[in-house]
Amino acid sequence: MGGPSRAAAVSVASNSLLIFLKVTVGLLTGAVSILAEAIHSALDLLAAVIAFFGLRAAGKPADREHPFGHGKWENVSGSIEAVLIFIAAVWIIYEAVKRIIGGAEVEMLGWGIAVMAVSAAANTLVSRYLFKSAREHDSLALEADAQHLRTDVITSLGVLLGLLAVQLTGLTILDPIIAIAVALIIVRAAWDILHKSFGGIIDAGLPPAEQRLIADILNEHRGALAGFHEIRTRKAGAQRFLELHLVMPRGITVEESHRMCDHLEADLRARLPRLEVALHVEPCDEDCPNCPAAACPERRES
């Protein structure tokens, strides 16, 4: 099992244990905030499972039916995760409002406090590992999973503090209020994941920073180019795609244009990993206003 899949498997194992602990303690104490956290962890587990299979699908090489590869499986898995998180947040809010209206007793808070502390510590370690793996493999699915766990750390600490407040003050209404706060944090995390994942499905361009980097690299080669235009970018999972038109000085040979394209592609791929480049070469206009004097044969002859 490779690097990204191994990281996803670690997340699956961690969340499975935490779900068991939170559900058990949530039922014993009657605390809706702990049950909300159990649901949150269940979503993290589901996200980890989706990420595991999404990464395996995305890692398949290009084939006849999928000439651009399978990278968009990562975007699909991230979008599914986000929708499921929205649904769970609505359920948490519903249950919390019922507790506020009807009232409920909370007991054995010591167990709940202990489980929340363990959850925060475990998810801190696992989320750091997942973020590191996501950066190494440029994996959207692992990043989404890590984002879930980081959110879980925040909500676990919030529930922990809330349970301490309930124990100290006896105000049981604090428990469902905390659960609603947890749900709102979950909604924000889901929106961030959906925005990033769905953009890849509808072929949104690369992030602005990466597009600026491409423009900078092209400008570094202005001395050998007459210009460039029709730049189009997109991303599928970890795979980046770039298409552009290169305007070459009139009169240079096909071989010289080919060497220039190879050189430019190598520079782009060195600065942007997992980049597929498609270049269309065309000659400059007859008046040659932008041709570099050193590169254009017509100007050298004049």
TrEMBL record:
The residues covered by the Cation efflux protein transmembrane domain are 9-198
Q: State the signal peptide span.
A: none
List each copy of the Cation efflux protein cytoplasmic domain by range: 207-284
- What protein name does the entry list? Cation diffusion facilitator family transporter
Q: How does it sit in the membrane?
A: Multi-pass membrane protein
Keyword annotations: Membrane, Transmembrane, Transmembrane helix, Transport
Q: Which GO terms describe its cellular component?
A: plasma membrane
Q: Where in the cell is it found?
A: Membrane
Q: Please classify the protein's predominant subcellular localization into one broad category.
A: membrane
| Oxidoreductase among keywords | no
Q: Where are the transmembrane segments?
A: 12-35, 42-59, 79-97, 109-131, 159-187
One Gene Ontology MF term:
ferrous iron transmembrane transporter activity
